[in-house]
Amino acid sequence: MVRFGTFAPQGWRLEMRGIEGGAAQWQRLKGVAQTLERIGYDSLWLYDHFHTVPRTEIQPTFECWTTMAALAEATSKIRLGQLVTCALYRNPAYLAKVSACVDVISGGRVDVGLGAGWKQDEFEAYGYPFPKIRERLDRMADTARILKAMWTEEKATVSGRYLAVKDAVNEPKPLQKPHPPLWIGSQGPKVGLRLVAELAAGWNHNRGQAAFDEKLPILMQHCRDLGRDPKTMRISVERTCAIFNDEKERREHIERCWPGVSAERIKTFLDEACTGTPEKIAKELNHYIERGAELIILWFQDLADVGSGASMAERFMKEVRPLLRERA
């Protein structure tokens, strides 16, 4: 069965613009999460970023893991994940502790996404070193190994290339057994995808259809090279989505969601996204499903409007979801 996820409006992509004050924004975020759960989304995701993109416009951005903990209490059945937790933003033992506690608070509903980090301006602004990509990948791999050890062992000892723990106790353990699903979002064909095959329950892809068709066979070959059955690799796809039945709807959506943004920048953004009529969107998403994707995660720029009945997230469930295949 294919499952569908979306995001909580935490502010990173300026979706909370126009809602004044942190308290009001949190209430909107929480209310949207509860509505998304009610209308049938299977999972709810957060970005792990510190300030808005683009950085030139300063708006609140709710921190990923503290928001995860709050949503664990505010919801009851929807799964909660991150796309993706930056491995270099937190000590791995601390991340193991936090993620285990949130899994317990949520009743066993946490998915853990992990990435090597890419947004250099955030690293520099917050005082984190930003090493070369190979070191970032190695640190991500160390983090993954430490997470799995501390989620499952009474006392974890791991010596990685850069990171280590010794007799580290992590109680309470996560409720999920053997541990929460670990998703890795790396795309590099030689190192990143091999680490996915070695360390992750699943791969998250977020680069569009052509890149998906290029990278998926490489990932499957890495699985075979490592002695892993490729059928055990879970596949998720993240896409920005907007539903337009005609040019008039497209213009109205742009005017409402991107005030003051240049037409050229908006065109580039939407051209790379999954947009158009419900039939066109369904055709693209079915392409992923037919090739094994079990989870489709969608970003909608008007997430803060969920509850109005006319938001893209609500329209998706009514107009696009019925057109999608269940499994390949």
What descriptors fit this protein?
single chain; 328 residues; TIM Barrel; ten-stranded parallel beta sheet; two-stranded antiparallel sheet; 11 helices; 42% helix; 16% strand
- Can you tell me the residue ranges where pLDDT is under 50 for at least 5 consecutive residues? none
CATH topology: TIM Barrel
* Radius of gyration, taken over Cα atoms and rounded to an integer in Å: 19 Å
Structural class, from secondary structure content? Answer: alpha/beta
Q: What's the CATH class label?
A: Alpha Beta
Specify the CATH architecture. Alpha-Beta Barrel
Total domain units: 1
Rounded mean pLDDT is 96
- Main sheet properties: 10 strands, parallel
Please write the string of helix (H) and strand (E) elements: EHEHEEHEHHEEEHEHEHHEHEH
| DSSP helix fraction | 40-55%
